[in-house]
Structures are given as structure tokens and as C-alpha cells.
């Protein structure tokens, strides 16, 4: 008898995360925007938080760009990874190279998936107020698209 090909084991989709951390350099623009967007789309079905390598200052352009779509981040207070000592996340999404390196260290003792989504920093934009605000809008839209597509993917059921 000829050897028959063996059936390949089914590849299981990862379990849907219950807790997601968004991380950037200062936790003042990209990660708070991502946190607010994710909360808007997924509500309380997933716990969302954000942090940075360093604590930046709240950013008025980020707040304005988010307010345009009905999301208020004006009360967000930046925090660092060091303030997350007892936190446990299933998924850590990093938005800057510096945050990615720190997240890998942070997740070393966690069973967390760490993914890197390169996201341009709109604070580097110069020009008129409208040009700067457009950069923040573009960041907001990129994050919204990425969050919706990533978190709406098929997940293994959790029993």
C-alpha cells in the first residue's frame, strides 16, 4: 500500500484577549487614542488600558481629534509601565519601537502576546494648526482601522 498523506492538525485561532494594553513612548497621544477607540468599539467585553515608557503631558491636538468623533480623552492622565506592576494582560499592542522593547521586557513573565503596530507620531508634524490636526486625524483613523480588523478576527472560543 502506498503511504497516504497524514492529516495535518488543525491550526487553532488564538483565544480572544480579555485584557489589552496599548503602549507608546509617552502615553499622551497614540496609546490613549487607541485605548479610547477600542473601548468605543468593544465596550466592556474586553478590558483596555494604556501606558508609556515615560509619562508625557496630555496633548490638546489628540483630545481635539478624538472629540471630533465623539470620544473624550481630555481627562486621560499618562502613566508608565512601572505603574502597572500587578497588571496582567493577554495582549500588548505597541505603537512605537521604544515601547515595543519595553513591552517585551514587561511581558517576559506574563503569558501575553506582544504585537508591534508601527504608528507614526503626529507630534513630529510641523505647519499650520490644520496641518498638525490632520496628522492626528490620520493617526486616529489608522488606529481605528487596525483595532477593528485585528480584534474582529476569528478567535478560539473560550470555555
TrEMBL record:
Residues 18-153 form the Phosphotyrosine protein phosphatase I domain. The keyword Acyltransferase does not apply. GO terms for biological process: response to arsenic-containing substance. It comes from the Bacteria. CDD domains: LMWP_ArsC (cd16345). It holds the Pfam family LMWPc. Keywords: Arsenical resistance. The keyword Cell division does not apply. This is Low molecular weight phosphatase family protein. It comes from Methylocystis bryophila.
Amino acid at each position: 500500500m502506498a503511504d497516504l498523506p497524514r492529516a495535518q492538525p488543525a491550526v487553532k485561532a488564538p483565544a480572544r484577549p480579555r485584557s489589552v494594553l496599548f503602549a507608546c513612548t509617552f502615553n499622551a497621544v497614540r496609546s490613549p487614542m487607541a485605548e479610547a477607540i477600542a473601548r468605543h468599539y468593544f465596550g466592556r467585553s474586553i478590558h483596555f488600558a494604556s501606558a508609556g515608557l515615560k509619562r508625557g503631558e496630555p496633548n490638546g491636538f489628540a483630545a481635539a481629534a478624538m472629540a471630533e468623533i465623539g470620544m473624550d480623552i481630555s481627562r486621560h492622565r499618562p502613566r508608565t509601565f512601572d505603574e502597572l506592576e500587578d497588571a496582567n494582560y493577554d495582549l500588548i499592542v505597541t505603537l512605537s519601537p521604544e515601547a515595543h522593547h519595553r513591552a517585551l521586557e514587561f511581558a517576559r513573565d506574563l503569558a501575553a502576546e506582544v504585537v508591534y503596530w508601527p504608528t507614526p507620531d503626529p507630534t513630529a508634524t510641523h505647519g499650520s494648526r490644520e496641518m498638525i490636526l490632520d496628522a492626528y486625524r490620520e493617526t486616529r483613523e489608522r488606529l481605528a482601522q487596525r483595532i477593528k480588523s485585528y480584534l474582529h478576527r476569528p478567535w478560539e472560543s473560550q470555555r
